[in-house]
Amino acid sequence: MQNFEAFRELINTPRNIVITTHFKPDADALGSSLGLAGYLKKKGHKVSVITPSDYPSFIAWMAGNEEVMNYENYKIRGKTNNLIANADVIFCLDFSVLARIEAMSEQVKQSKAVKVMIDHHTFPEDFAEFVYHDTKAAATAQLIFQLIELMDEKYLLDVPICECLYAGIMTDTGSFRHPSTTPAVHRIAADIMELGVNTNLIHRRIYDSSTVERMKFLGYVLSEKLVVLPEYRVAYFTVTDEELKRFNSQTGDTEGIVNYGLQIEGIVMSIIIVDRPEAVKMSFRSVEEFAVNQIASKHFSGGGHKNASGGKTTGIGLAGTVEKLMRILPEYQEMLLAVRN
Ligand code: 5GP
Ligand code: MN
Fold first, then answer.
1. What percentage of residues in the chain have a pLDDT greater than 70?
2. Domain range list for the chain
3. Which of 28, 84, 312, 340 is found 20 to 30 A from 186 (Cα to Cα)?
4. Alpha helix (H) ranges present in the chain?
5. pLDDT in tens, 158-177
């Protein structure tokens, strides 16, 4: 972070702080937010965590979860707007484009608070006074850990804080297997284990906590909805609104399914396309140098990381989205076929 000394000074005095993260927070978004919140509270700040939406129940065990305010909750909109408007500092974690906080973005932009962006996504916008941004970081939670190290305050870390950070690092690295998993990431994980975190428990809370309906939904999608296009080395799944309802799908139930496409030999890009009420939502995963964030940003109003991105369409429906995908695939065929696998 440039001007780190000014940042240190800023957060060495008790402040009113708001922490926010991207729409539909995942374990890294929520884990980095609640990990940072735990640390800042220990430093004497008044901290509020406001998420732009709800999030899956398999991450709701994190310390501080009960205090998180959902901006979509109209009953507390006066309070959340007040907190944002009157904050001294707003931390923006795990996103770097204001549109990613949807309805909150205008309030955050207008607030006089000093903004601090901590993130690892590509193509950041310039909206924050303090920026700790590193696309090579495996997770925003890694950056939070490193920030606390830079502050020389590792002694403030405790088990609840580290459980949150570990969850973010574990999930964003795909349980320490993505290429983002550097020796530094393993060292942080080792530090966290030494502090007393039960990492096996964290893994089970997140990955071994499916409902029976979710397991049946996964089985259905794999057996009935998988489309493989060997000529492009692409696999994709579509999920309709009716199927979400039939399997009583909850927030987070489609998460991770896209990764199964990459488990097929030779597949270089996997996509899941889900018909949500607000938009048709897409998740992209790829291997090696094939950059899905380029496809997501160029064609599907999205973005993300080179090998894990998201996007959406509106007004063309699920079938229209698949048609659009089919139209653009030839443009990428040569690159897809060239990938080492
Ligand atoms: P997921 O597929 O797990 O929802 O998202 C994969 C990655 O892409 C995450 O880092 C997420 O933040 C990013 N991402 C997902 N959806 C969008 C989107 O609509 N816009 C942008 N810019 N990034 C997205
Ligand atoms: Mn992340």
1. 100
2. 4-207, 212-338
3. 340
4. 4-11, 27-42, 77-86, 105-110, 140-150, 159-172, 183-194, 199-207, 212-224, 241-246, 257-261, 292-299, 317-338
5. 999 999 999 999 999 999 99
- Write the DSSP symbol of residue 56: -
Ligand 1 pocket member 168 (CB < 6 A):
no
β-bridge partners, 273: 238, 282
**CA dist., res. 254 & res. 272, Å (int):** 9
Helices then strands, each counted (H, E), the chain: 13, 12
Nearest to 117 by CA among 44, 39, 9, 22: 22
Per-residue pLDDT tens digits for 13-27: 999 999 999 999 999
Class of domain 4-207: alpha beta
Distances (CA, A) of 64 to 117, 222, 250, 296: 21, 36, 22, 33
Q: How far is the CA of 32 from the centre of ligand 2 (A)?
A: 9
Give CA–CA dist 97/111, Å, rounded.
16
Alpha-carbon distances of 95 from 23, 184, 233, rounded to whole Å:
9, 22, 30
CA of 29 to the centre of ligand 2 (A): 6
Q: How far apart are CA 240 and CA 99, in angstroms?
A: 25
CATH class as words, domain 212-338? alpha beta
* pTM, two decimal places: 0.92
Ligand 1: nearest atom to the Cα of 272:
2
